[in-house]
Amino acid sequence: MAQLWGGRFTKDTDRNVYLFNASINFDKRLYLQDIEGSIAHSIMLEKQGILTLEEKDAIVKGLTSIRNDIENGTLEITDKYEDIHSFVEANLIDRIGDAGKKLHTGRSRNDQVALDMKLYVRSEVTEVDELLKAFQKILLRIMEENIETYMPGFTHLQKAQPVTLAHHMSAYFEMFTRDRSRLADIYKRMNTCPLGAGALAGTTYPLDRGYTASMLGFEQPTRNSMDSVSDRDYIIEFLSALSTIMMHLSRFAEETIIWNSNEYGFIEIDDGYSTGSSIMPQKKNPDIAELVRGKTGRVYGHLMAMLATMKSLPLAYNKDMQEDKEGTFDAIDTTKECLTMFMQMVDTMQFRKDVMAKSAMNGFTNATDAADYLVKHGMPFRDAHGVIGKLVLTCIDKNKSIDEMSIEELKEICDVFEEDIYDAISLKTCVEKRLTTGAPGLKPMKETIEIYKKYLND
């Protein structure tokens, strides 16, 4: 059992206690960040005259060789070591001797693990953002191809007013834009370097924390050493952002499941992203969408667990904080996998435009426009609303859409109707006369698409 702190103790830790306390089985994921931070720390120590040039060169060479050997599979990270920090340091000492023992000068595992997690989370924030951007490009392509693909818009899962598929996809584009904005905020807020904060009270060595921060791509060092080692806000914020991303994916997944049903038939999911039944040969199941919907709760759970872990911890570092890793790693992996699979499914999905248009026609989605027609002919809106309500009842009784009613039948309801009513309530007219910013009309939709193009190219 390789430990860094045995000098104070007169006997070995109980094996079960050691295993309960150890984190190597999950924090081994941080080997790259641990080595990166250690290289920067050693360079700074040499700059400050704490290490000789020869010692620094030996440490950098040794750490680089450890990283290369891990990546090419010749060095295995095992539970012989308590954590990734002791693994790296022990292997460094084995390779370069006493110079390796000087690497830990001026730092603690507390600021070391805080650095490792910040470096890891920061890179994952960027990766998730790139996945969201890739998904937005797919949505933009669908939008450009479907500016005039008419479909029903819904409220309360009931057909409400006609929109276009482009307009519908634009709603998800907006959600992912907000998600990316949140990620950018998190990146900016977390981009301070805790290395050099020590266990909680800094160090007596003349460290140049600003130099180390700059080498590692941080804007500046953290300002308070106690907060440096006990801050996990950035993890909570990231888990919150991942939960919101998953919520958006889950909403999209729910609609995909509904649209894929026989009753709707709006889409055809590619065979490569569907599964069948072991007993019912006719089935083609939207399992990807269902799994995304299910995994959303899993990510939510990791956020709540982290909040509960941190809620009553006194300053500064406490071992409870070791629980920040497994849930965070799983939430990141889950969200990235869900984004990747779902966007690929959407990218290969076929939209049944004729079914969508027919659904919009048969759902009285043009009823509001019929009321507006009467208003434009001088009728107060509240009266027009009542007339169209009676008209819809008549249509239901006759099993007809408004468009299928003859002018004579319409005039029996209200003599204001004339032949031009049919053009006024066509799907094309209903959509294209909606020209306010953010509406589904052709002009605002084209403007929105151009804005999205510019956004993705910036």
List keywords for this structure.
458 residues, mainly alpha, Fumarase C, Chain B, domain 1, Fumarase C, Chain A, domain 2, Ribonucleotide Reductase Protein R1, domain 1, two-stranded parallel sheet, elongated
Write a short abstract of this structure.
Helix content is 63%, strand content 5%. By secondary structure, the chain is mostly helical. Helix 9 links the parallel strand 3 and strand 4.
Describe what you observe in this structure.
The protein is mainly α. Helices cover 63% and strands 5% of the residues. The protein has 20 helices and 6 strands. α9 links the parallel β3 and β4. α7 runs antiparallel to α8 and α11 packs parallel to α13. The mean pLDDT is 95.
CATH superfamily of the largest domain: Fumarase/aspartase (Central domain)
* Rounded average pLDDT: 95
Helix content: 55-70%
Oligomer: single chain
Based on Cα principal axes, name the global outline: elongated
Count the E strands.
6
CATH domain fold name of the largest domain: Fumarase C, Chain A, domain 2
Give me the Rg, rounded. Answer: 31 Å
Q: Given this structure, which CATH class of the largest domain is correct?
A: Mainly Alpha
CATH architecture of the largest domain: Up-down Bundle
Q: What proportion strand?
A: under 5%
> Number of domains in the coordinates?
3
Secondary structure tally, helices: 20
Spatial strand sequence of the major β-sheet? 1-2
Main sheet: strands, sense, barrel = 2 strands, antiparallel
Cα distance, first to last residue? 51 Å
Order of helices and strands: HHHHHHHEEHEHEHHEHHEHHHHHHH
Uncertain segments are: none
